[in-house]
Input
Amino acid sequence: MKKVLVAGGGGFIGGWLVKELLSKGYKVFVVDIKPISDWYQVFPEANNASKDLSLLENCTQATLGIDEIYNLAADMGGMGFIENNKAACMLTVLINTHLLMAAKINEVSKFFFSSSACVYNADKQNKTLIEPLKEEDAYPAMPEDGYGWEKLFSERMCRHFYEDYGLETRVARYHNVYGPNGTWEGGREKAPAALSRKVAEAKLAKTNTINIWGDGEQTRSFTYIKDCIEGTIKLMDSKVREPVNIGSDEMVSINGLTKIIEEIAGIALNPIYDVSAPKGVRGRNSDNTKVLKLLNWQPKISLKEGLTETYLWIEQEVNKKLKFKN
Output
């Protein structure tokens, strides 16, 4: 039975990945810095532990006897978090460094690193109608300050651990992953969850306005969690050592995203724009040419379909919180 470690398995993507790996019959070990009671999804059939993987000793213990590592552990969140916590985001490099060192020490056969579209050159993302980002657009390097630099540096470390030590590494550049069982409040949530929460709160409060960061014209593509997990496992099981996009190429403006969520909720709201709020790059979209060619993978779930599942789950959570307060 294959023994797999999911680092950061108490988080959003990690929880969904653990669920899928268990369904495949793997023996899954899950480690996250958060107390287990704070994990997004907990599976009793997995071996679950709360440890700080920025420490080499903990990484060495967690990887003993492990065949494959999926590293999703990171101090991160949506744009509101990463623009205001650059040092904290950079310190995540300790996790990847020590996990790679531990993988070498314990002779782990394969290592997956979850990178991000934030590694891409900012000069290629300064318009709303941009060319989709190809993997080679990460260089010359000018990634998102803090978070993006940490991801790009860790990508290079994975590459050199293969070149120098023979550790098989896989790197996925995630593009705005969203879905149920994720962060939807508290400052770390991403745009689909934040807007879904705002729409749900407006619906329940019977108000007619919604606050939008920026002018709403900034563009993105958003990847539904089930597509992300399928692409991740396909990449891990492949022979592809170079970084590849795991993302949707269905680009939408933030205004457009808001309208879709409002349609799902059955309400219409008047936007109030906060142009002083964090808003990130002007435009970002995924070019999936390479990943389609190398892995025969592309997203299956449309933005409307994924947002429907996400919004309905968040509306339910907002309702629960309101009832608890009352």
